[in-house]
Request: fold
Amino acid sequence: MRIKSLELLVGAFLLLAFGALMFLAIQVSGLSGETSKESYRVHALFQNVGGLTERAKVTIAGVSVGRVESITLDAKTQQARVEMAINSEVNDISTDAVAAILTSGLLGEKYIGLTPGADDTFLKEGSRIEQTQSSLVLEDLIGKFLFNKATEAPKAAPEASADSADAAF
Amino acid sequence: MLTRVQALGARGLDVVRTIGAASVFLWQALVCWPRWRLAIPLLIQQIYAVGVLSLVIIIVSGLFIGMVLGLQGYNILITYGSEQALGTLVSLTLTRELGPVVTALLFAGRAGSALTAEIGLMKATEQLSSMEMIGVDPLRRIIAPRFWAGVLTMPMLATIFTAVGILGGRLVGVDWLGIFEGSYWANMQQSVEFIDDVLNGLIKALAFGIAVTWIAVFQGYDCEPTSEGISRATTRTVVYGSLAVLALDFILTAVMFGGV
Reply:
């Protein structure tokens, strides 16, 4: 009888461990068989991927439809070549879709947002998304802003003096 | 001066000899044709002793560590206004590091020391030699089931520890500090990958299980058959086991996550 209750406890222990593993798989890592879904690969060339990583989301209208498989440098064009795996269910993305690298939240992760086009031909295995929009790099943005300020300044200065001259009269 | 060098050399040889003896010992205990009818009941008994009896300490420490992580993480994250990331913080810390490592340290203290003391006492009271006299190989009868039980239960205990810890973090973060429950789980699911984080954590736990159990059974088998010898061997199990876990953890982390 003792050995039976012992076996029962060991069995309960195994079940508990299995339950914990299921919890980690489903509730914690959100595993729901999505990785094993059929997919097809498309690629796109970007001027700058700035912080996009492998396994990042690919979305259409904010809905996740695939993930980034690899990011390499295209030797010929010196641009970043991003390989994406898109779920086979989503097989009606037109070839003139725009792929943009976006940021979720102010400091969040980078992901790729696809904006569907109007073309009648659809993307399929191995095709390339022609129109891309690079990642927004904050330093470039600040640089542009300062440059614009600097070029505006000499124009603004005579106006300001003219204004003050008007005011004097 | 020369005697110092000599002593160092002797010590080095001693270490190498011990490692060699431990390897031969493990080889002899494990490499054989298994006799399932005999082995399974022994294994179940050892899983009970090593696993089920360690369950309480694992669950309680997992709960508290998760709660502390939740509290500390919340206090830091709130200064950046990003307390929704608490789920990510708690789950990644537990699956990658704290789950396997703390479980292994507790396992060395709770189960490893018990294994060493048990086997050491068997040796001191000459149970092992009398087994040999009646034609039972003590390595297969005593050591092998204990070793397998330790190796099998470590990943299970680490999984339970991690799951309980994440629930503990939820208890503090969501129920007491008022983080929105949806963002706790959603951020976690976004950032935790099953293969990269959960499975790598389990592989770590398996490696720690092998190291700790091996040290424990070898120290017990190798101890001086006196009461002092047993106490020294038990201490060595906990010390060497913990050191081995921490050193292995660094190596495994560097290989799995470090990109070295």
